[in-house]
Amino acid sequence: MNQILNNVETAQHQALLFLLNYLKQKDYHFTAITPLSHQRILDRNKNIKDITLRDIFGWNLAFAETDLESSLFTILKENQLIHFQEGYWFSNVRVASLEDQLFIHSSFPTVQQNAVFFGPDTYRFVYHLKQYLSDKPQPFKRGLELCCGTSAAAISMAKHYPDFNEIMVADLNPKALSYSKINASFADLNNITPVYSNLFSNIEGRFDLIFANPPYLIDADQRQYRHGGNMLDGNELSFNIVKQGMQRLNPLGCLFLYTGVAIRPNGNPFLEELKKLLTPYSNIKWSYEEIDPDVFGEELEQPAYQHIERIALVLVMLEMKS
Ligand SMILES: C[S@@+](CC[C@H](N)C(=O)[O-])C[C@H]1O[C@@H](n2cnc3c(N)ncnc32)[C@H](O)[C@@H]1O
Q1: Region for residue 8 given its phi and psi (left: phi exceeds 0; alpha: psi -120 to 50; beta: otherwise)
Q2: CB 185 within 8 A of CB 17
Q3: How far apart are CA 223 and CA 233, in angstroms?
Q4: Cα(96)–Cα(28) distance, integer angstroms
Q5: CA of 228 to the centre of ligand 1 (A)
Q6: Peptide bond before 109: cis, by omega within 30 degrees of 0?
Q7: pLDDT per residue over 212-258, tens digit each?
Q8: Rounded to the nearest whole angstrom, what is the distance from the C-alpha of residue 50 to the centroid of ligand 1?
Q9: Is 208 in the pocket of ligand 1 (CB under 6 A)?
Q10: Is 91 in the pocket of ligand 1 (CB under 6 A)?
Q11: What are the strands, taking DSSP E only, across the chain?
Q12: Is this structure's pTM higher than 0.90?
């Protein structure tokens, strides 16, 4: 049984690599936006005549068999990567671009518990991580991306910083690890190692660089890619990444956390807990920086956010002095 499942998975990997290579040849680019903006664009485009590859694999619009080259259509159909519904075909995956790379991620809408996320946070995370690393002189040899999703950040780091011997990428979602494997293989990287792990639970050793964009919302459906835990107004995972990560840094190692913080009218419990955790350590230099005062404003309508006045995007950065 396991062998049959492995064969299906291997065949799907090959089919997805075929798709990525096909799209690359066609100079495909697509920027993944928020689900609300995505839906607004879908609501506009009810009767499109000339369906493009971006319509099918970016917007996930309905298409006809004749809208795809027959070799691509056949391989996607044979590997259950498209499905037929009410007279039309739909892709079961999306493809997003970041810089000159392409990434497989989950189809729209991302309502499944195991949806693999790629969106505006991914672009911001990678941008700020690169800015952060731009003035770090030392070469990083061993890296770890926690909560990796598609591994877009790890792949981008591996491309920009060839000194890495290894970047481990960890997630609780097997589908995220499977997409990470395909995305790394498509990027022609053999130093990305996907690991099934609840934060550090299955990860051995210490690192020169740990980076993460974890879930940070209080999600009513507790979806893995969105729900940041019940404590600290959705910042339980973020706090645990810092708490456990500081024990896993090599001398001069760095931890870079990109996250969203729910701010109360009378304070910021996440920041208060960070101060309590980190202030006693004289060998750790750390900073907390707000980069956007107000994101996910629509969440403030949810019952779980009635005591919150805004959600801010922040960077938490730690460096071991020696
Ligand atoms: C918001 S997505 C971010 C994905 C990726 N870092 C990016 O920037 O595109 C968060 C990811 O964290 C994973 N995750 C949630 N809880 C986790 C945990 N306890 N340990 C490891 N990964 C976790 C989810 O499965 C999801 O892939």
Answers
A1: alpha
A2: yes
A3: 15
A4: 9
A5: 9
A6: yes
A7: 999 999 998 888 889 999 899 999 999 999 999 999 999 999 999 99
A8: 36
A9: no
A10: no
A11: 82-85, 88-91, 93-98, 101-106, 142-146, 166-171, 192-196, 207-212, 249-263, 284-292, 310-320
A12: yes
